[in-house]
UniProtKB/TrEMBL annotation:
This is Sodium/proline symporter. Signal peptide: none annotated. The gene is putP. It is found in: Cell inner membrane; Cell membrane. The chain crosses the membrane at residues 6-24, 75-93, 126-147, 167-188, 195-214, 234-254, 274-301, 313-339, 372-392, 398-419, 431-451, 463-483. Gene3D superfamilies: Sodium/glucose cotransporter.
Length: 492
């Protein structure tokens, strides 16, 4: 293990913990401060926090790995995500920021739904909270798998004296640091660390493809076209079902609680457009960089007669092969940043659901603000431990786990969030039907093996039937039940 790499990683961990301590001093006295940072996020922080918590380890592991195996055709996933994110910022962000305040100053998505549909308040809070905790535990596990793979690939054998494999050591270390700053500093700590992590990620994703392409032994020029037939053809071997399964990743954005909660926390509705421009620019650069890592990395490996066992580790392999140890540490910190930014956001949203939508709702209605904050910290720990158990299999695929959780949220919450913000005729019964239908269809689709495999194989991505079924359930049940009593909400 290189000392320089360790120094870079150690500095990164120290910075994350320092931000956690700063946030602890600033915003953890009340539940609104702990869960939403007091709704005072700067637009740049909100933008990069939404982006970094969205991209996760799949941006540096899963997507480059898929491109490494298949070629440019996998770029359709990134295209679908970019379009979906843009629509999310335009349609959902300003309305959610405004309506969560108008409907009782809701601090969580389940609480907003309960306030929006008071006749089904308890039902909606319980169902949505269960879905959030279940799918976020799986999603968090995907991030921890990325942390395990990082240490297993980069530091093989280095931690044998601690009584566990390098993979499990990576999982525990990643989880430990994330738990520290999330439990201490809450939403503000998560958002500020996301901002720093987003900056690190974009620098790394610009730097690495350039070095791989044009550095010593690089893969520029004809090498990229000689890897395999159709490697640079975005339509090579693409079927209609494969195309739909890729681009419909974008549908998932509307229902990702850890992303849309950033919209709720922006300091002013007028700042949404500024945050959107910053966030979409950041996302475009990062996606292009991830494409470059996968494509150029495959050409580099082929040109230099090398081989890797796990395509999802191509970023890690290149970081170790091509850079000075200090820079390698920075690049690995970028990977950890992608992983940790998402894990921390997911843990906090899961914690908020457990505290606000279970503990306060059923156990301690009159709990003090300090008690709620402390229970939230305990909930973060419990969800993390469950995710560690799921992530303990080193054969897990990051992209596969992310795809399943992304579809679950997108189908259950996507149509629900869009329609609750834009359709006054929607009813509480329709909302509950959409939640249950979307989640159930996704789970059934996966269980029956009808879903797409993004590293080979055909199938329909489970978000497609889930999203459609949820939308139809909301529409049909809402029209079949009594119209809700009109409620005045300030115009957008």
């Amino acid at each position: 293990m290189q000392t320089g790499t360790l120094i870079s990683l150690a500095l990164y961990f120290i910075l994350m913990l320092a931000i956690g301590l700063y946030a602890w001093k600033k915003s953890t006295d009340t539940s609104e401060g702990y869960l939403l940072g007091g709704r005072q996020l700067h637009p740049a922080v909100a933008a990069l926090s939404a982006g970094a918590s969205d991209m996760s380890g799949w941006l540096l592991l899963g997507l480059p790995g898929a491109l490494y195996v298949t070629g440019l055709v996998e770029a359709w996933i990134g295209i679908g995500l970019f379009v979906g994110a843009l629509i999310n910022w335009i349609v959902v962000a300003p309305r959610l920021r405004q309506q969560t305040i108008a409907y009782g100053n809701a601090l969580t998505i389940p609480e907003f739904l309960a306030n929006r549909f008071p006749d089904k308040a308890t039902t909606l809070r319980v169902i949505s909270a269960i879905i959030i905790v279940v799918f976020f535990t799986v999603y968090t596990a995907a991030g921890l798998v990325g942390g395990g793979k990082l240490f297993m690939t980069s530091f093989a054998g280095a931690f044998g004296d601690v009584g566990m494999s390098d993979y499990m050591f990576g999982i525990w270390l990643t989880a430990g640091v994330v738990l520290a700053y999330t439990m201490i500093g809450g939403f503000l700590a998560v958002s500020l660390t996301d901002f720093v992590q987003g900056c690190i990620m974009v620098v790394a994703l610009v730097l690495m493809p350039l070095v791989v392409m044009f550095g010593p032994g690089g893969s520029a020029g004809e090498s990229l076209t000689q890897v395999q037939p159709g490697f640079l053809d975005i339509g090579y071997g693409l079927t209609f079902i494969g195309f739909l399964s890729a681009v419909t990743w974008g549908l998932g954005y509307f229902g990702q609680p850890h992303i849309i909660v950033r919209f709720m926390a922006i300091r002013d509705e007028k700042d949404v457009s500024v945050a959107r421009n910053i966030g979409m620019t950041w996302m475009f650069v990062c996606l292009i960089g991830a494409l470059g890592v996968g494509l150029a990395g495959r050409a580099y490996i082929a040109r230099n007669g090398l081989a890797i066992d796990d395509p999802e580790t191509i970023f890690i392999v290149l970081a170790n092969l091509l850079f000075h140890p200090l820079i390698t540490g920075f690049l690995l910190a970028a990977l950890l940043a992608a992983i940790m930014s998402t894990i921390s956001s997911q843990l906090l949203v899961s914690s908020s659901s457990l505290t606000e939508d279970f503990y306060r709702l059923f156990l301690r209605k009159d709990a003090s603000e300090r008690e709620i904050v402390n229970v939230g910290r305990l909930a973060v720990l419990l969800v993390a431990l469950a995710a560690i158990v799921i992530a303990s299999d080193p054969e897990s695929r990051v992209l596969g786990l992310v795809a399943n959780a992304w579809a679950g949220f997108g189908a259950a919450f996507g149509p629900l969030i869009i329609l609750s913000l834009t359709w006054n005729r929607m009813t509480g019964a329709g909302a509950a039907a959409g939640l249950v239908t979307g989640a159930a269809v996704v789970i059934a689709w996966i269980a029956l093996g009808w879903n797409a495999s993004f590293l080979g194989g055909e199938g329909v991505y489970e978000i497609i039937p889930g999203f459609i079924a949820s939308w139809l359930a909301i529409w049909g049940v809402s029209l079949g039940t009594a119209a809700p009593t009109p409620r005045a909400v300030p115009a957008n």
